[in-house]
Amino acid sequence: MIKGFSKLSQKEKIDVLLEEFKLPQSFKDTLEHHQHSELQEIYNQFSENTLSNFYMPYGVAPGFVINGKEYAIPMTIEESSVVAAASKAAKFWSNRGGFQTKVISTLKVGQLFFTTDFGYIKLLEELTDIKEHLLSSITEISHSMEQRGGGIHTMKLNQEPLVDKETYCLMVSFETVDSMGANFINSCLEKMGEALCNYLKSKGAEAEVNMAILSNYTPDCIVECTLSCAIEDLKAYSGDYTPDEFAQRFKKAVLLAQHNSSRAVTHNKGIMNGIDAVVLATGNDFRAIEAGVHAYAAQSGQYSSLTKVKLTENEFKYTLTIPLALGTVGGLTKLHPLAGLSLRLLGNPSATELMQIIAAAGMANNFSAIAALVTSGIQKGHMKMHLSNILSTFNATSEEIGMAIDHFGTHVISHSAVKSYLELLRNNE
Ligand code: MEV
Fold it and tell me: What pLDDT, on a 0 to 100 scale, did the predictor assign at position 200?
């Protein structure tokens, strides 16, 4: 067992791993090769026991028109086709009114779980006093947030009878303006927890805090994104179908995602392809977003699609409704050099503007995915990218790549088929 690992320098950590796990010198070389010559100290600070950096592609999907404004959206993603699909949909919709978005709500929630023998009725009777007491306990912490227009919005007391009759949850909703607000919310909650226990003890009751933490379920931090156009304008995506048939097939695909949970998960994953890529590129917390989005998708009790489609007379209307608790100040957004760059590329948006941009990216990816699924299928586009990935693992030359693309236009692509094809080419040279 390695002892005192965290105390070692970066170089020592690598050396210890090499020795302990009998790793080759190339393990060390690769790690060192991926360290940054100037900025490594900054990256090291983001996490613990950092050895090196794990690179992911940082791309851009240009041509987005959101509420009449043009954006080139930065995306950090390792899956081929995602940036291409977003760009294709962005370009298509830019001539059809673009993405129409609106922020419905911006509140985040914190939970203060506590146990007391004070009694539910008495807690309710004294709730106004308790709230005032808790608010005054955080004036120092909340002062600058309040100056920026944020702070505590509401407090609601719930009993947790399924856990035990003396346990409660104070649900506190916060406006955190342009910050994601996790630190602010958690600091407020911890301070309020102390104040709450002091209040209850001063009344002769026993009281203890169980937990004080923000909730990543954010059903009151919602953005909506809509795409609409005349059905006949869908021609560019309808493949061998008429635009009308395409619209009907699209509608059925969305209905299936609404009513079939297994399909809904994949449908929503296609939305998250776009969402996560921008969340990551802007230094936001993708785990928090993922957790909140999927909980929201299951809020009715059945996991369902985050999008809805409506076909009227001659109009196709497609809407995404999604919770996105984001920040454009604080946290990684300013510390990570590329997160800062992404925000700059987006024109240094407010958190609400970023919610709309990210919703549009998710919508673009989902639209392209469903359009492909109900026409030529997803593999056609994927396999093209897959082919180029396989070719690069065999160090194919540009001449070989050109010939392989022609050949696999009419042949099934697989790792072994590409390998055999290249062997044949190379043996015949
Ligand atoms: C793949 O990353 C995403 C899709 O599976 C989404 C979907 O099925 O809607 C293509």
Answer: 98
